[in-house]
Amino acid sequence: MSMAVVTWQRLNVVGKILAIAVPVLIALGLVTVGVAILAGPFAIEFVGDNVPLLRFVAAIGAVLLLTIPTAFVVIFMELKVIARMNLRVGPDRVGPYGTAMSVVHGLKFLSKEDFAPLGVDLQVFTIAPVVVFVGSVMTFLVIPFAPGLFGLDMNVGVLYLFAMGGLTVVGLLMAGWASFNKYSLLGGLRSAAQMVSYEIPLTLSLVGVVLLAGTMSLNQMVLAQSGSIADWYVWQQPLAFVIFIIAGIAEANRSPFDLTEADQEIVAGFATEYSGMRFGFFFFAEYVNVFVVSALIVTFFLGGWTAPFDWPFPVAVAIDPLAWGVGSLVAILALPVVGTLVLAAPFWLSSRITTLQALVIGFILFNVVAIGLVLGWAFVSLDWVSGLFWFFAKSYVFVFFFVWLRGSLPRVRIDQLMGFAWKWLLPAALLNIFVTAAAIVIVNR
Amino acid sequence: MTELWYVVGFAVVGVAFVFLVIGLSWLITHRNRGDEHKGRPYESGIDTFGDTWGRFGISYYIYALLFVAFDIEIVFIYLWALVFRDLLLGGFVAMLVFVLILLVGLGYAWRKGVLTWR
Predict the structure, then answer these.
(1) Residue B49 at interface with chain A, using a CB cutoff of 8 Å
(2) Would you say the C-alpha torsion B19, B23, B26, B28 has a positive or negative sign?
């Protein structure tokens, strides 16, 4: 073997990641600088000419990149909240308060052997995680995050959502079938039966919302609920709200409806034979799904990005430093120095803190204050910042609720699960549709 | 047409992302063939016997059939819900009849015991 191969094999995983990442990053940086110098003037012209194309690229990049931190936050919440409910501490070693734990989970999956057992149907086995992951991530495309901030305002948004939800069923069934393992097959078929059954009440419960809003576009639905807390559809559709939450938990394969991966019965269900990054994507998709279901509950019933109350002061301050003149610019540049000194002064008076420590503390405090001020200003004056805040705040309340359910409820039996969907939720959802329709008929007479 | 391109672009980038990450993982991790036991299906430590891809319980199949019936119904109900404000009473009665016919089917399945898991 040549020298290079031996060196490569001696590196540990972090070394291998760095050995690939560092040259790639350096090359990318050089290329970026070169392109920026050579193509700068043309790029500005190109941006002006191709706004729709750039919006397309930006939307796809932003929405896909959003899924990664979302999944990390949901995983961290699950670890920490479940631990607290079990009277444990939970992750507290990696990063501040263990917040980097889910990133470490991701890196661990990345560093595990990419392995397929004997006898599997290799093509299907490889494609299954892709289908599951893409199916759950693509729902992000139509979710409105803030006023005017969405991947795509689709006029058949609700149908698109359920089409993408259907992809997950196919993916899980593929995983179960291809694994060449009886437990996997049982898990895959169970998940197909369960998700297919709960998709009916899930879809039917939304008909009431569509009846009220008169549109299937998610963005239009949120706009129809804007105003105050009284305009949210949860007050007009309480039954649909409850059905949607129950069926949503079942669709996301979450406890107490996690029959598909019931460890005590069928090992790990469809994921039994999966390991490494392939399992990682199932794991990832599950937590993305938890967030998606929470976001959909918020979008359909709790007003999406709208604030629960009317914002009392409509501040829209536009900052244009260029118009302020040279003196103001000097003041802005001087602000960090003056602010640091002022904030460091009280600490400097203490005899136990050296001058350097006082300056460092002052600088950190100044940064905290400045970031707080900028965020506060953005929150009151930029619609989409407050929209994002309310959207994520409401969504994470429901993520917490899902984790709470997992921490407190035992798993149901499969006959109870299937009977509940067909005998209770389905008639209740149909009843909800006709009560809503009758109310609309009476109101519009 | 733009909408279609968004969906296609999103799917392509998503699939590419998954394969890139799995490829990266394949590149940086060790590979160990092990012996034949490593590749055996994990069935709680017991060697697998019988045909894995063999016959399977029929109850799953019946749920799928019921699902198809109701899913098609849902497509109609959504279209009806979109234009309901123009139809009002007439639309209400028409949909009531439509759903009642389907409910007869559901009632039949219920009576036959299909909805009870066996």
Answers:
(1) no
(2) negative
